Amino acid sequence: MAIEGAAARPAVSASVGRSARRDLLALLNRWGWVKVLLFLVPACLLLTFYLVIPIAMLIVMSFYRSTLFGVVPDFSWNNYLHFWRNPMFPNLLLRSIRLAVTVTAISLLVSYPFAYFLARGTRRFRTTLLILVMVPFWTSYLIRTMSWLPILGIKGVVNYSLMTLQIVSNPVEVFLFNQFSVVLTLIHIYLPYMVVPIYLSLDRHVTLPLSLPGVVGGIVMVFIAAFGAYVTPKLLGGSSGIMFGNVLADQYSGTFNWPFGAVLALIMIAVVLGLLVVASRFTRLDAVFGARA
Amino acid sequence: MTDGRARSFLRIYGAAVYVFLYTPIVMLIVLSFNDSNSITLPWGGFTWRWYRALAENQSVFVSLKNSLTLGLMTAVISTVIGGLAAFAFRSRFRGQVAVMRMLLLPFVIPGLTIGVALLLLFHALGVRPGLLTTTLVAHVGFTLPYVFVLISTRLHRFDESLEEAAMDLGADEITTFWQVTFPLIRPGIVGSALFAFTLSFDEFIRTLFTIGNDNTLPIQIWSTLGSMVSPELNAMATLIVAASFALVIAGELLRGRER
Q1: Nearest in space to A287 (alpha carbons), one of B191, B252, B92, B153
Q2: pLDDT at residue B259 above 60?
Q3: How high is the ipTM of this complex?
């Protein structure tokens, strides 16, 4: 702040002529970078501790060795080899990607006409309708996941209705604790991630092909969220609906194999970054995330 | 298909999606008043007993207090740091795109990997996990990109000629900021702080790996889900949803007023 004031004060006068104004701009240009630097330091410092160092630690940890007596600093590729040699892990990775792709594809199919409805089919209540889409977005996903338990369970609302209507005589178990319940719930939770960017691009442009940035943005957001899921498969997935994130988390809470957990975390980040690289070929991702620079 | 038929089809479709989005939450609210020990149907009559049980649950109040404290501190710190960064982005500087990408990166890194990575960092540093130390860092980092984007969007739409006019009339940069810029963007800043608060209040996965022995409301819900599931949980969820709705609507009204 002090630098700001010092830079600006000398050049200000009641009647600023062209040259004085140019002086002011020149001064700001000369000292502006100090201000910019000072303003950016807190954010950069925070991100260093929140993102840069932690990910660096994941990389270092992924080469360490886990023993019965704790983690031993070592350099070996064993944790990576462990991943590839045991077919369970690559299969789990593929299954999680497949689940996330399913969630993303269905979300896109559901969201596109819906976003079109919001952008073109409404006039009077548009703001209210938009807020109604946004509100669940800011409501705990833990609660939104939990809210499917009383619906899909053995004694849940769906079974209750089916039995009341005498469509089935005994409760059906197929709704909960499998991949179906995971996919359904993830779609329910992350639908706004798809609707909002598509709506924004349809709102701005008249023709449908120009909504591509919104579609790509939605795909990226929903895939990342679904692929990184932990709560939903843990709570509603049973044994067949377990995902990559659950096995990753287990390395830190159950089996305590931190180095192998670091490998899994890095693979998760690599998949996400790979998707971003592909997506950036189709549209400018910076704009998707609301950046203006 | 005629235009009218297409339009009514779109409306029915739109209504169906809203039903899908809101049915589980509405069921949760209804079931929180159900006089039955199971969390689901059949309907056993209307009761307040789950809310009374909740009011007598001391640990819920501790978690609530923790969540509120953490949310407030996150909102304040994140808004200051993110706001400063947004202001820096009004000027052009070298490496701008790189810095911006770094600021936006937390959007796309899965929260779970951030959680375990932070666990490794704090373990290596020897920091004891706690609500207002490790978890606060996690929450400020998590909310920062949202705050940054919201405030820079607001600043982008800001009419800079107002500031130039103030300076032409002899105000220095600090006076201009407090007398002109800040009052105009204040609704945007308060709105971002509210969003940061809501995000922090609901955040679970980054909290789980950084909080140690403390509890926030989402952590408490999670451990309750693991042990005993009772309609008391529905009551707690209903209150949290109601509070989130109120906050989001307050934020939208604030943001709407400046348009």
Answers
A1: B153
A2: no
A3: 0.87
